[in-house]
Amino acid sequence: DETSAILNTLEFFDPGTQVWSLAPSGGTSRVDHASAVSGNRIYFWGGNDGVGNLNSVDIYVVDPWYAGPSGGRSRTGHTGVSYNSKLYFWGGQDSAGTALDTQDIFDSTQNSWSTGAPGGTSRYHHSGTVIEDKVYYWGGQGSDGTLANMDRVDIYRFLEDRWDSTGGVGGRVRSSHSAVTYDSKIYFWGGKDSTG
Predict the structure, then answer these.
(1) Do 194 and 167 form a contact (C-beta atoms < 8 A)?
(2) Contact partners, residue 105, CB within 8 Å, separation at least 6
(3) Rounded to whole angstroms, how far apart are CA atoms 56 and 69?
(4) Longest C-alpha distance within the chain, in Å?
(5) Torsion of CA 37, 137, 118, 133, to 10 degrees
(6) Can you list the pairs that 108-114 forms with residues at least 24 positions away whose Cβ atoms lie under 8 Å?
(7) CB-hemisphere CA count at 13 Å for 158?
(8) SS3 state of residue 72
(9) H-only helix segments in 121-162
C-alpha cells in the first residue's frame, strides 16, 4: 500500500548536543510538501497524501499539532519560505502534472490565505531562499519534466508583490536539491541532474 510509506512523523536534531529526538507525530501524512517557520510555529502545507494533491496546512507548535485553515491551490513539489509572519508557497505541480507559477500566501497572524502575484518560470522540485526582502527561486523541473531553462533565477519582491527578470542564469541545473543562504550568498547542494 503506497500510503503506508507516506509519513507524518517529526524528528529534530540539536547541533549543540548532536542528538536526534522524536517529536509527537501528527498532521496529515504527506510527501512533496513545503514547510516554513513563523514565530514558534512550523507550517507544513500542500503535497500529496497518496490519494491526491493537498491544499491543507498542519501546524506544529512545540506541542501539540493542530490543523489550520485549508486554502490556496492544491499542489505538490513546491517551496515554502517565511517573511514577516507570512508564509509564501510557490510553484510545484497541480494534480494534472502541470508546473505552476502561482503563489499562495498564508498570514500566520490572521490565520488566513491570499494569492500573490503570479510569475517566474513555472517549475517544481526547485528551491527558494530569502535574502533581505526578496526570495530567489532556482532549479527544478518544468511541465515537460526536464531541466530545460531551469538555470534561470526568478526573484520575487515581497514588499512590492512583484517579480524581477534580472536574476540571471547559471549553475549546474538540478532538481530535488536543497539551498541555504549564508553571508548574502545562496548555496545549492545535492539533487539530481539530467543524467539521473
Answers:
(1) no
(2) 86, 87, 88, 89, 113, 114, 115, 116
(3) 7
(4) 46
(5) 60
(6) 108/38, 108/39, 108/41, 108/43, 109/85, 111/68, 111/69, 112/69, 112/71, 113/69, 113/71, 113/72
(7) 18
(8) coil
(9) none
Q: What angle do CA 106, 112, 114 make, to 5 degrees?
A: 60
The answer, yes or no, to whether the previous bond of 64 is cis (omega within 30 of 0) is yes
Residues 185, 68: Cα–Cα separation, whole Å: 33
Each residue's pLDDT tens digit, 68-122: 899 999 999 999 999 999 999 999 999 999 999 999 999 999 999 999 999 999 9
pLDDT score of 63: 63
Give, as one character, the DSSP assignment of residue 76: B
Q: Quote the DSSP letter at residue 5.
A: G
For cell 532538481, the residue is 175
Count CB neighbours of 192 within 10 A: 13
Overall pTM surpassing 0.85 (yes/no): no
SS3 3: helix
The residue assigned the cell 519582491 is 157
